[in-house]
Amino acid sequence: MKLFDVYPLFDLNFIEAEGSYLWNDRNEKYLDLYGGHAVISIGHSHPTYVKMLTRQLHNIGFYSNSVRIPIQEEVAKQLGKLSGYEDYEFFMCNSGAEANENALKLASFHTNKKKVICFTKAFHGRTAAAVAATDNKKIIAPINETDNFIFLPFNEIEVLEDAFKNNEIAAVIIEGIQGVGGVQIPTTPFLQKIRTLCDRYQALLILDEIQSGYGRTGKFFAHQHANIKADIVTVAKGMGNGFPVGGVIISPEIEAKHGLLGTTFGGNYLACAASKAVLEVLESEKLMVNAKEMGDYLYQQLKEDEIIKEIRYQGLMFGIELKMSCAPFRNQLLQDFRILTGNASCPNTLRILPALNISKKELDVFISAFKTVSKLNIKKNEQILFC
Predict the structure, then answer these.
(1) What's 14-45+286-386's CATH class?
(2) Separation between Cα atoms, residue 330 and residue 325, nearest integer Å
(3) pLDDT value, residue 15
(4) 204: Cβ contacts below 8 Å, ≥ 6 apart
(5) CA angle 341, 343, 348 (to 5 degrees)
(6) What is the CA radius of gyration of the chain?
(7) pLDDT for res 381
(8) The dihedral formed by the CA atoms of 371, 376, 378 and 382, expressed in degrees to the nearest 10
(9) Which tens digit of pLDDT belongs to each residue from 344-355?
């Protein structure tokens, strides 16, 4: 049997990792500024993370949700305290897509309605309802097609109220910051208007913080920059620092019933150990403060570069829109400087999503490489870029 070929792959085989660095099978060292789509939140192989997972595996790795698993309650308590959602409830699952599926299902159960507002350039996952709420027709199969999802233009306040007036809206689902869409940041008035309309029309506000959450923006959740509270928040990626885990943070207004949601593997002992380690390190090492400081530093160092059209960022979530295609620029960083970065659905946008404990010294390596690649491309494409 061979693998189902759905991933375009770089010819790299990493066998070791520590902090913000990876080593391949030829012992070549790479700087990781992407973290596998913002998954690596506290750095590769963090000692606290390794210790807690190893200790848990020695004790017990798995049993189903048919018995009490106290470590789930410990995760929920820590998460509530750090995130500012202490009075909410928590359901653990395995991935971001699964978290969004459960969030949408809960919203529909709670409101007894089925229409959902979502936005252009959104990405919420590749499964059933999550992919139907995603603005990419290429990954929506006929079985996923539905008229229950109403796409509105992102950051355009004027169109919001008509959608509520003309439809029975169960929920609005929006990313704290659009990741795949190119690090598109919702404005504070836009988010506040959505919150107001959800309250007015008895709809739930679902904040997808799968990529933008867990301290990445300098606050625990990106939507907290707008001083709003969601009815449901979905989390994954940085939550487990590489261990598959996701979750749904749920308003106490939503009633839990036995059998309403369920999962075989969600909230298993190892997932909880990984989640606890991440929360402990986020707090003890003050990584949200570091994310803001390092993000501001990176912006200041790059903002005047001539190859850049626009930088969109909060904390350590960066979309650097170039005046050229991202692909060759990204490949030069990888091949000539051994630096891993990301792309986006916008063909000119370079995504930077490093570990939240990245240092100024490590960012300086990237800044130097970026400026070198920039100069080479400006010289090569001067007439095209500046005509």
Answers:
(1) alpha beta
(2) 9
(3) 98
(4) 106, 107, 110, 111, 170, 171, 172, 198, 231, 232, 251, 254
(5) 120
(6) 21
(7) 73
(8) 170
(9) 999 999 999 999
Give me 105's structure tokens.
């299902």
The encoded tokens of residue 252 equal 């106490």
For residues 85 and 233, give the distance between their C-alpha atoms in angstroms, rounded to a whole number.
Answer: 10
Please state whether the predicted TM-score (pTM) of the whole model is above 0.85.
Answer: yes
What was the pLDDT predicted at 213? 98
Largest CA distance in the chain: 67
List Cβ<8 Å contacts ≥24 apart for 108-114: 108/170, 108/171, 109/260, 110/204, 110/253, 110/254, 110/255, 111/170, 111/171, 111/202, 111/203, 111/204, 113/168, 113/169, 113/170, 113/203, 114/148, 114/168, 114/170
How far is it, in rounded angstroms, from Cα 355 to Cα 39? Answer: 8
Q: Which of 223, 187, 232 is nearest to 205 (CA)?
A: 232
User: What is the three-state SS of 143-154?
Assistant: HHCCCCEEEECC
Could you tell me which CATH number the domain at 47-284 has? 3.40.640.10
Alpha-helix runs per DSSP H in 178-325: 188-200, 269-284, 287-302
Of the candidates 44, 91, 356, 345, the one whose C-alpha atom is nearest the C-alpha of residue 234 is 91
What DSSP line would sit under 305-322, residue for residue? -TTEEEEEEETTEEEEEE
Residue type, 318: F
pLDDT of residue 385: 59
Residue 210 to residues 38, 100, 214, 383: CA-CA distances in angstroms? Answer: 9, 9, 8, 40
- Indicate the SS3 state at residue 16: strand
Query: Which helix (H) or strand (E) covers residue 79, if one does?
Result: helix 70-83
Residues 367-382 have pLDDT tens digits of: 999 999 999 998 877 6
**Domain assignments of the chain as residue spans, ordered by start:** 14-45+286-386, 47-284
Label residue 360 left, alpha or beta by phi (over 0 means left) and psi (-120 to 50 means alpha). alpha
Q: CB neighbours of 298 closer than 8 A, spacing ≥ 6?
A: 313, 316, 318, 352, 363, 366, 367
Low-confidence residues in the chain, pLDDT < 70: 382-387
β-bridge mates for residue 14, sequence order: 24
> And the tokens for 297?
């530093």
Calculate the dihedral angle through the C-alpha atoms of 376, 355, 205, 157, rounding to the nearest 10 degrees: -20
